[in-house]
Design a protein that fits this description.
10 helices; 2 strands
């Protein structure tokens, strides 16, 4: 600013009017005039003033200076978003765990094969549990027949045959299996003579129970005598 004032004084001193009315001023005179002007309190170098004005809406909240309410709102929003992400991650982890458990379960099922169903305790109304049968089924059936209880004798022989097939031979007879179904299922496990004996026994049972006819004594005696020989309790599977 002093240089500007000095330049202004020089311009005034060297103007055309000054050149015409007075001789040129010396350098010392110019310097003295500049000092005088600089010392004049009416010509200060700079002046700082303050004014009042209404604050505009866009000036109320500048970037980087958020209000407390806005800060809390943003914080809660961030927490909510984080919670949603956490829930999604937890759900995905649970789904993966379930899929892995299902895969292991299916793998064990394929490796071990299907679980064998429990054998039935009854076929129709006939109790085929080994504990419900006498040790010597043939002899017990003969005793019933000799007392005139032919139907009970055939029922005991048929019950015993089904029990031996299920528990001794592993034939997959079910509770609702019919006589013909039992014969078909047993055919895959029994040898020829044993299967032929079973056919005779089932035919004799149907003759007495359904047709209500009697069997020849020799036929019934053959069924009682050959029962353990063809259907032993601890039978071996046919070759």
């Amino acid at each position: 600013m002093p240089l500007l004032k000095a330049a202004l004084l020089l311009a005034l001193a060297s103007g055309p009017a000054a050149a015409a009315e007075a001789p040129a001023m010396s350098a010392s005179a110019v310097q003295a005039a500049a000092s005088a002007v600089a010392a004049d309190p009416l010509l200060p170098g700079t002046e700082t003033t303050k004014t009042l004005r209404f604050k505009r809406d866009e000036d109320k909240e500048k970037p980087g200076k958020k209000s407390d309410a806005r800060w809390w709102a943003d914080l809660m929003g961030n927490l909510s978003a984080g919670l949603r992400v956490a829930i999604w991650l937890l759900g995905a982890a649970l789904l993966i765990w379930l899929l892995l458990r299902l895969r292991d379960w299916l793998g064990r099922g394929r490796g071990a094969g299907e679980l064998a169903p429990l054998p039935p305790t009854h076929v129709g109304t006939l109790d085929i549990r080994p504990a419900s049968l006498p040790a010597d089924i043939g002899a017990a059936a003969r005793a019933l027949w000799q007392r005139g209880e032919e139907r009970a004798a055939l029922s005991l022989l048929y019950r015993g045959a089904l029990s031996r097939l299920v528990h001794g031979q592993g034939v997959p007879i079910r509770a609702a299996s019919t006589e013909s179904e039992c014969l078909a299922l047993a055919a895959a496990r029994l040898a020829g003579p044993a299967q032929a004996f079973l056919v005779q026994l089932v035919t004799g049972w149907q003759t007495v129970a359904y047709a209500q006819r009697t069997l020849a004594p020799e036929q019934l005696e053959a069924l009682c005598q050959g029962f353990d020989a063809h259907l032993p309790a601890a039978a071996e599977a046919p070759a």
